[in-house]
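Reagents: none. Just compute today. LysR family transcriptional regulator.
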Amino acid sequence: MRINIETAELQAFIAVARQSSFRAAAEGLFITAPALSRRIENLERALQERLFDRTTRRVSLTPAGELFLVHAQAVMEELELAVKSVEQGMAHRREHVTVACVPSVANNLLPLVLKPYARTHANVRVRIIDESAADVLESVRKGEADFGVNFIGAQEAEIDFEELTRERYLAVMPSHHPLAAQSTLHWKSLAGEKLVSVSSSSGNRSLIDNAFSRVPQRPVIQYETNHVAGAISLVAAGLGVALLPELAIRNAPYKGIVARPVTSPVLSRAMGLITLKGRVLKPAAATLAQALREAMASKPRK
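Predicted 3D structure written out:
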C-alpha cells in the first residue's frame, strides 16, 4: 500500500485536534483557513476516513480520528527526533583538510602552524601530502588536496598561485669548511667544490643548474639525493657543500653546519599558495591557509 500523506497534512490534523477549531489551528500554523481545510480533506481522502465531526459550534474527532491521532503524533515526534539527530551528527562530524606541500614546508613550517591550529580546530583531521613540487602540483590539480604550498604552479592555466614569500638559496657546508669564514659567497667561489645535490628531477635542481650555467667553471656534483633531508645529512658528515632553500635548513637537527648567502646573482624561488582556479576553500581549510600566510609573512630571515 502506497502512503501518500505529507507532513504538512499531519501537522494540520494534529493542530485541529488540539485546538478543536479550524480557525485557531490555521492561525497557529500561519496559513489561511481554506488552506487548512484542503490539507484535512487531502488527508481524509488518502485515509478514506472522516477524521472530524464538524458543527457550527465545535469540532471533534471521530473514532477513526482518535485512533489516527495517536499514530500521527508518534510519527511527528519520531521525525523531529530524526532531524535533530542528523543535525547534531553533522555538527559533530569530523572535518577533513588535506594540504599538499614540499618537504621543507612540511618539516619546518607546518608543525609551527598546526600546533595553534589544533587548539582551535580540535575536531579537524589534517592530512599532509609532503612530496616533490611536481607531486604537490598534481595533488592540487586532481583535487586530492584542498590547497598546496609550492614553488611551481604560477604558469599553470588551471591553478591560482598566490605568492607568499621569496626564499633565498644558501650554500650549506660544514662549519670547518674554508668558505665558512666568508659572510657571503659568489657562485664562482663554489667552482671546484664537491657538491651535494638533490636529484635532477627536482624543481630545486633545475633552478640551481640554471644559475651554474652562467659560471665558467661548474662545481662537481659528487653526491645526489632525492630529498633535501638526505643532502643535509651528507653535508653534516663533511662530504661536501649543498645549495638549499633557506626554509629547508631552518631548525635542521644537525650540529656543525653553517649556511651562507650566495650572491652575483642572488638565487631565490617564489613560494606560494596554490589552489584550483576558482575553488572556494571550506572554512577549516581557509583558516589553515590563512595561518600559513601569516607564518610565511613573519618567517625569520637567515
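The chain has a mean pLDDT of 88.
Action item: order primers for follow-up constructs.
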